Amino acid sequence: MPPRTPKTTAAPWVPEDGGLTALQLASRECRGCDLWRNATQTVFGEGPAHPDVMFVGEQPGDKEDLAGHPFVGPAGRVLDEALAAVGIDRRRAYVTNAVKHFKWERGSGQRRIHAKPNQLEIQACRPWLEAELRVLRPKALVCLGSTAAQALLGRTFRVTVHRGEWVDSPLAPNVLATVHPSSILRAPDEAARAEAMEAFIRDLRPVAALLASAETRSAAPGS
Ligand code: URA
Ligand code: SF4
User: What is the pTM of this model?
Assistant: First the structure.
């Protein structure tokens, strides 16, 4: 008989019930794929238990891996800036990643260079994302970049074609994808950076408008 190869999936580590805290705690022990081996710690999603909106990035970066919190490095600052520009309160947003461990390669010197997670790793980590959606039930779900979009909307989804558009998905009542904030940091010069930032902000405006109108409805007397 051939030896049984263990399946690459987070599923055995994901608790079937309990809320966000139970998920956060359990995720620390995940060995669903090999990425935990070279990472400092699991970087799980963070935010309120009843967020207006859930943002999904790719994976923690170097700073996030060390801090244990998502989007606290340079990409997080771009996200903060864009949220402030459209008037989304980051404290009411839940931020997470498609993959919860930092994947990296050794660069020159001691630098750890971000390495793109592969399909196997993205699929392995997806049960965490599904569990986050199950307990949080956000009104709006925003995929930041192609890794998140492909993890959640399928491998044929093209962010370049459909960025900033509402897409039909059973995952949340309102779902949209845009670029990853780190793509703005990679712009070749200041003018390109400003333009990329403007386009990112433009993509987030419908999300801000949706959240604002939901707020107006719930604040209206007699509603
Ligand atoms: N990039 C991501 O996709 N997620 C983070 O948490 C940080 C950088
Ligand atoms: Fe588990 Fe995801 Fe980390 Fe892989 S990347 S070990 S599936 S939490």
Answer: 0.94
